[in-house]
Amino acid sequence: MVAPRACFRWLGIAVSAAALSAGLPAQVAPGGAFPALAGAGLDGGPLPATEGKVVLVDFWASWCAPCKASFPAYSRLQSAYADRGLVVVAVSVDEDASACAAFVARLRPSFATVRDPGHRLVGAVRVPTMPTSYLVDRSGKVRFVHAGFHGEQTMRELRAEIEALLGEGQAGP
Amino acid sequence: MSRARLRLALLAALGAAAALAGGCSTASAVRVHPWERATLADVAMNPDRDPVGTAMNEHVYFSREAASGGRGVGGSGCGCN
Q1: Were A92 and a residue from A100, B13, B24, B42 both cysteine, which residue would form a disulfide, CB within 3.0 to 4.6 Å?
Q2: Tens of pLDDT along chain B (81 residues)?
C-alpha cells in the first residue's frame, strides 16, 4: 500500500521537475557577469568606453513613469562621478524608436542612451521590473541591482554603492 | 483498492501534474515580460482614464436600465438608502 504522504511527496517532485524543465534563463544577479554591451545589437550613439570603469546600466522605456524621474537623477550621478570613473549607460527597451528619441530629446540626459530594438540584451539580462539598473564594478561583475526607481532612497543607496566601487581602485594595466 | 490500481492512479496524477506545470511554463502560454509592457502601459488601457466620462456613462446606464446601484454604488436599488 502506498501511503498518502508518499503520494504528495512524489507529486511535489513531479511539479518541481516540470517547472525546472521550462528552461528559463536565469536573471543577471549580483556576483554574475554583465553581458557585453558591444555586440548586443544596440541602436543609438557610440557606446562609451566602459573597460576598467564602474558602469551603471539602466534599462528604461518612454512608457515607464519612474524612468522619467530617474533620468535627471542619473544625470546628476554622471556629473558627480564621471571624473572618478563612473559611466552611466541607459538602454531603452522601446519598440518605437521615435518615442525613445522624443523622450531623450525632452529630458536631455548627460549620459549615453542606446536602444535595444530586438530586446536581445534585456532578454539576456531578464530585468525583473521597469526600470532596473545594474551597478557593474571595474572587472565587469554585477555588484548591485536596483529594481525600480524609488527617488531619494534609490539615490542614497546608489551614491553609497558607487563610492564603494570607485574606492576599490583601478583595475590592473 | 488494490496496490496495482493505487499505483496506476498515482502515476496518472503525476502525469497530469507534470503536464499542467509544463503547459503553464512553455512558450505556448502568454508571458508578458516587464520590458514588453508598452501597450499595457498606454493610457488607453486604463478603463478609468476619464472619470467625468465614466460618471456620464454610468448615469446613462442606470437611467436607461433602471439599474441604479447595479455597479457597486452604495445601496441595492431598493430605494431604502
Answers
A1: A100
A2: 567 777 767 777 766 666 555 555 555 578 899 999 999 999 889 888 898 988 888 888 877 777 666 666 565 556 654
- Looking only at the bridges linking them, the beta strands covering A112-115 and A43-44 are antiparallel
- The shortest CB-CB distance from A21 to any of B7, B22, B38 is to B22
What residues does each domain of chain A span? 25-39+50-166
Give the residue on A whose Cα is nearest the Cα of B13: A11
DSSP structure class, residue A144: E
Look up A100 and say whether it is catalytic.
no
What value of ipTM does the predicted structure carry? 0.77
Q: Which of residues 133-172 of A touch B (CB under 8 A)?
A: none
Q: Is A33 at the interface with chain B, CB within 8 A?
A: no
Give the three-state DSSP class for A112. Answer: strand
> Residue B63: helix, strand or coil by DSSP?
helix
pTM, to two decimals: 0.72
The cell numbers describing B13, all together, are: 496524477
- For the record, the C-alpha cell of A98 comes out as 521615435
